[in-house]
Amino acid sequence: MNQIPFIPIALIILVLPLIGFFFTLLFGKKIKQMYLFETGIITTALGLSIYMAFMKLMYYANEKIVSELTWIDLGSTKAFGKISVDLGMMIDNVTVLMLFVVCLISTLVHLFSIEYMKGDKRYNRYFSYLGIFTFSMLGIVFTHNMLMMYIFWELVGLSSYLLIGFWFEKKSASDASKKAFVVNRVGDFGMLAGILILFANYHTFTFDKVFAQISQGVLPFNSEFWLTAMGILLFCGAIGKSAQFPLHVWLPDAMEGPTPVSALIHAATMVAAGVYLTVRIFPLLTGDALLFIATIGAISSFIPATIALTQNDIKKVLAYSTISQLGYMVMALGVGAYAYGFFHLVTHAFFKAGLFLGSGSVIHAMHHEQDIRQMGGLKKKLPITYTTFLIFSLAISGIPLTSGFLSKDGILASAYAFGNLTGYKIFAISGFLVALMTAFYMFRLLILTFHGEPRNEEKYHHAHESPALMTMPLVLLAILSIFAFYTINPLSAQTGWVLKDWLKTPASVVPEHARYSFMVQKHDEKPEAAVKHEEAVAEKPAAESEHTIIHSEEYTEALHHAHYPAMFLSLAVAGLGILFAFIMYFWRKINADKLADSVKPLYKFSLNKWYFDEFYDFAFVNGTLLLSRFLAWFDSTIVDGIVNGSAVVTRQLSKLSGLFDTYVVDGLVNLSATLSGLLGIFTRKFQTGKVQTYIIMVVFSLVALLFILMNYGI
Amino acid sequence: MNHAPLLSLITFLPVIGMIIVLLLPKGMEKAMKITTLTVTFLQIVIAGVIWSGFNYSLGGINDPNSFQFIEKFRWIELTGVAWLNTIKIDYFIGIDGISAPMLMLTALISFIAALSSWNINKAVKGYHAMYLLLVTGMMGVFVSLDFFLFYIFWEVMLLPMYFLIGIWGGPRKEYAAIKFFIYTLFGSVFMLLVMIGLYLSCQETLAAGQKVFTFNILSMMDPKNYTATGILSPLNPHNLRFIAYIGLFAGFAIKIPMFPFHTWLPDAHVEAPTPISVILAGVLLKMGTYGILRFNYPIFPEITRQVIWWIAAFGMINIIYGALCAMAQKDFKKLIAYSSVSHMGFVLLGMASLNTIGITGAIFQMFNHGTITAMLFLIVGVIYDRAHTRGIYEFGGLATQMPIYTGFVTIAFFGAIGLPGISGFISESFVFLGGFGFEPIRLLTILSTIGILLGAGYMLWTLQRVYLGPLNEKWNQLQDLDGREYAMLIPLTIIVLILGIYPSFMLGLMNTSVNALVDFMAKSPQLFSSIGM
Questions:
Q1: What is the rounded distance in angstroms from the CA atom of residue A624 to the CA atom of residue A611?
Q2: Is A627 in Cβ contact with B436 (below 8 Å)?
Q3: Per-residue model confidence as pLDDT tens digits over A473-483
Q4: Domains of chain B, residue spans
Q5: Could you say which of A76, A192, A196 has the minimum Cβ distance to residue B515?
Q6: Mutate which: B320, B357, B461, vs A, most A CBs within 10 A
Q7: Chain A contact for B399 (CB, 8 A cutoff)
Q8: I need a surface site. Which of A181, A200, B60, B244 has the fewest CB within 10 A?
Q9: Residues 71-100 of A with CB under 8 A from B
Q10: How far apart are CA B379 and CA B383, in angstroms?
């Protein structure tokens, strides 16, 4: 069917970073240049991935390539039949887009890090960690089943742990890495439960096989409730990894890691894995599950946006902004805007990685100063960084001509249409409010960092533009943040190739009445499509186009109607946000401190991040620790106490029986001895040794005998 | 018998080693150490030969013809003994896919622990003699197919363990040794009673047509072999099989150790010298779960069905309770001991699933816990040897001082957390998949998954407290690993990684037997209970 060996290439791309990790880790101490080896490997992977993405999207855009092999074969039993666990790869348009994003940003971060990390004592180790991260992330990208997803999910968790805690000598860094891993595990806990439900009911982990069974009406435990529950539980993994409410608390702390790491892992790729997971399981999500997802997304976009308004650490602002943007993507998926959700993932990956690398450039120039109150006026000193930062800020604020405008506008329009169709207008309202806040805090950041007078003369004095290896990635990412890569019409993404040709919403497989009302298949197509689907699964995966069209005309109409109002509204709020930022921080018409004072409780609430950390520490961390201390006490005092107690009781009993033995049993023995002794003493009296006594006794005895015999005798 | 007596060789080779050690004159301590190393290394070689000759398609479990490397001959025979007529006891050993992984594990861990014993310099002769006797006991337990023989090996292993803890242990060694000894002995009493009860209920037909009582455990798995009136016979409507089951189970549960019988373990571990902790966690604990699979399951299948929920429930308690207790410990070794309690809970949960994936997970978890926990105890041993303390709060920042060591620590810790790519992940997820697939214990399985969260919590917290953060200047003299420590840690690391990536090496070994056990457990309860009707 196709001439391109996609699967072998994919395997090579996957394994390359692992090789890089392995050798860089082993020889990094001896050979100082190992980082070049690692960077070279990643660049090679990038080259291959560009080739693959290009071939796939240009020539095989409607195909899905799958390859699988049996990993573990457990044979068969009479009672349970055959059991085996498969591994496999799946390459579709989503895969190659994600692949490109991961490889590109990974390569740029490698290059950026060569300068940024210079002089670090574990320089090569850092690069090897980047290698294992890239490997794990690519595993998630390529997987065609839930088990492999989980495996690589945990492995990115490990790489994230290693990289956040890279400067582990700092307590805050080791705290943050631990927190990230454990909080993610909370999400994984739900995800694991979802996987258990999945496997117990479908006996496979493979997405397509599960989808096929669901579309044939096989529901988990025969109930739609469990189908919804399974979807939500699987999504829990995404809540953890994509730092969604209520598990978002680890991401701001994760900024303890080196800044390029934040760009790679905590902005562009790993945190997007949650969204990617949701994209993958999208067809099995019921309407209720989607509504839940949309709600989580809306909350997660709103809360962090309010927190970002007041933060003073350049990276913290960006971190909260990341959570907020991820919330957008999740919300988009939840309201059924599959394509826009994933599209925003891609555009966001570029401009947010750019923002983080830009902040890295600033931090580098300011000798590791991250507080924006110490900055100001850096525009002149860092012209390239400033220009690119401006472009990224425009993109994230959703200003036309940027990529961010295209995807964000699409999400807002979808939320708007969704509100009109279902009555849940809250998603659109929250979406526009977030857009307003985003524009405000981004320009607040930009103005405080680059404009105005330097607030710390000394640091300003030493600041200088970063070397080419650091600015080049910024420029490249800035270019990718321009609309032209996605569509020729800067106002509409719909007509662009990404959305028109590449990203197609997969058909929902859940029973029709459990879907959103507007997600229906055209009825005349349905039987045919179902048959085709079966065949496809039985033989080979069919072309995507055969099961994609799922929106009703009503929805298309609503979206069409939403397009212009949503666009104007989003432009208005973005403009308003930027304007406010200029009024407050550039022209200083309103004193920010005074304003903060006038709404002090709100300001404090935002500054202290809604007190999530305090609450979790109090409720969960301390609760668990308290419980564990209590149980340890219980264990050593009660459980072991019973053991030792029974030993004591046994010993006391033995003492008692010893006493009994000495005084009662042995006492009886001694008593009888004493008695016989006494008897002896008595009888001895008769043993005088004199013959006359004996004769008397004999005679006396004979008399007595005769007397007895005569009285009682015969 | 048309094959070399490999199982006898691997079992009794250490006894020969022990005799050599005892005969060596007092000054030749190095020679004694080398003897132990050589013997245990030879065991690995023999285990390798056994593995290469192992037929993967034979199931074992209850079928004497599909056991492998069988050696069987009359060991004790007394004729005309009162009402018993003939007493006969066989020397009957052999392995199937359930004992084979345990055999490999024992050979491996014995060698690693022998390496770790190198720097024990107190009463070397006695130590190595005891150590080798212990190894024989452990091997014997895993290969015996005759209850009497099994019981002898079980007790043989107890004695050297008592002395190894009681003489070469830490400050409270006497307490710990006595506690271990009495606790296990307490369990063996039940085992002894059940053994005699089964013996008097189960008969074997000799070639001459004569029926004699038997200790053959394979015969005990067939309801047809029971007498009509035997106290533990399913044919006897007033049998005591349920009580016997609980008694036998308790005997094994103490060894696992299962809550609430686990408190001997932290004490024994804390006081035992490093190699003995390695043996204890690596091999000894598995005897409990192995015993349940080998004895309780196929001999009492109908009762196993009845109590299956409880087995899973205790598994869950072990997982959660062990993890929470581990979290509160301040002594590094005690923490690892409690993590053992938690990890052995997975074995109980997995075996309660009664399906292929769960039981495979349970047995694989036994192996993986053996290797990973052995690594953890070696790791504690490494700093204890250097710093002479195990207080978690007394360290900090060791990663700066001992980077390579910390690398191994990271692998072992993440192995214990169940990170994919390391063998523990496969077994833990199989246990969950199996448990969830069996309806009665579904809820317990879900509750148990909290264990992976708690596990990450206490392990990473420990990692942070001991290895990360600023270096505690008190320890800036500590040296990184030496050659001997590499030799202990590298093989284990390689094994856990290989089995994490390609578990089929080990799963293939056990697969047919697990399926045979699953099938047996699916059909035999009816056989056992219907016959009595």
A1: 19
A2: no
A3: 999 999 999 88
A4: 6-524
A5: A76
A6: B357
A7: yes
A8: A200
A9: 71-80, 83
A10: 7
